[in-house]
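#lab-general

N.A. 3:47 PM
ok so I finally got the sequence cleaned up, no stray characters, all 236 residues accounted for. can someone with queue access submit it? mine expired

B.Y. 3:52 PM
send it over

N.A. 3:53 PM
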Amino acid sequence: MNNAISPGHPAIDQASYSWWRRCLMGITALFLALALPAWIFTVVGKEEWTSLWLMVAHGATAVALLLLAALQLRGSGGLRALLGHDLWRTYKICLPIVVVIYAVCTSLDVGLGYGRETFMVTFLAGLTALERVLCLVMLLALPPISEELLYRHFLMRLFPLNSRFWQWVAILSTSSLFMLMHSQYTHWPSFALIGALAVLFAYARLRTGGILVPVLLHSFAEICGMLSDTVMSQLL
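B.Y. 4:20 PM
back already:
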């Protein structure tokens, strides 16, 4: 196997490659990720919609995708196969890179005068103090799980990840989609940040063969994002 990134066989890619099965799972996962939040938004209504409801939508998506992953991996270790291997070393390699990405992109935002994203300014608007705390706690867990399952598990597995070429196709295609789907942001440094993080999360996924490290990195990135926004709120 010419595996250019992972030091061993990817834990959740050992099963024989079946394009149509993985495509079916990918389409199902994408449908759930789009349909569940849209349905919750319709039920709640535009006037009542807040960031707390957005986190609830991420939670529902995370549960649905975890169940789908359990079904997909039932013959190859179940959800335990999502953990991966070489976890601590990969996490230590990638963690400082997240900090560097945020430092560079926040500096660009401040230096070029863009300031805070409107989405971040209004993120906690209309919430009580308790709801704000709950929303922030949910932010650290639910979007990392739902988004890493979708992009770094179901969509990356559309490709045969056993060669340098397909690994880079998987990284670039899923990272581009991840960046485009975050359309709530408008400044180009924000898109650069999201794209760079997506590439790093995909690298961690390939190196470990699972999504635990990408989920943890994503959660840490959420913390960095809130700190970055706080810094900009004080400087601009």
